[in-house]
Design goal:
Structural class: mainly beta
Distance between the termini: 20 Å
Helix content: 10-25%
Radius of gyration: 15 Å
Strand content: 35-45%
Shape: globular
Number of strands: 7
Number of helices: 1
């Protein structure tokens, strides 16, 4: 299942538009990462020139916690879209370090408000039973 999201600056440097895929065994994050870490680039219209497309795979067994969080529109760097549901997922890297990712899921009015969390919970419970 695919969710079109907009990444929010957090521990992992994903930024801009991307996708989150709920696979049978893992979450797959697809999006852009900055080549050069310059915070001012978020405010330029040309910051897309400094981005590289990438994919990050996170097995369900490494997810530590996930939750819906408040994200203030005052600090939102792309003020074109209204702020939707903001989700934060923290997980463990193979070397044992903890990291996380945060994104906003812009949903249609017809969708259930917590559809992402419900589907994630369903996949995580299925993996635990195996």
């Amino acid at each position: 299942m695919q969710f079109n999201v907009e990444y929010v600056p957090y521990k992992i440097p994903f930024c801009g538009d991307g996708s989150v895929f709920l696979n049978e065994t893992a979450l797959i994050f697809e999006g852009s990462v900055k080549k050069i870490n310059i915070p001012v680039l978020y405010f330029w219209d040309l910051y897309h020139n400094f981005l590289v497309k990438t994919i990050r795979t996170v097995p369900y067994s490494t997810i530590l916690n996930y939750k819906k969080v408040f994200y203030s529109p005052v600090f939102y760097y792309k003020k074109r879209k209204p702020v939707g549901n903001c989700y934060q997922i923290n997980y463990r890297l193979p070397d044992g370090k903890k990291t996380g990712i945060k994104f906003i899921y812009h949903q249609n009015k017809s969708n259930n408000k917590n559809i992402f969390l419900m589907k994630l919970e369903e996949h995580m419970n299925a993996i635990k039973k195996i």
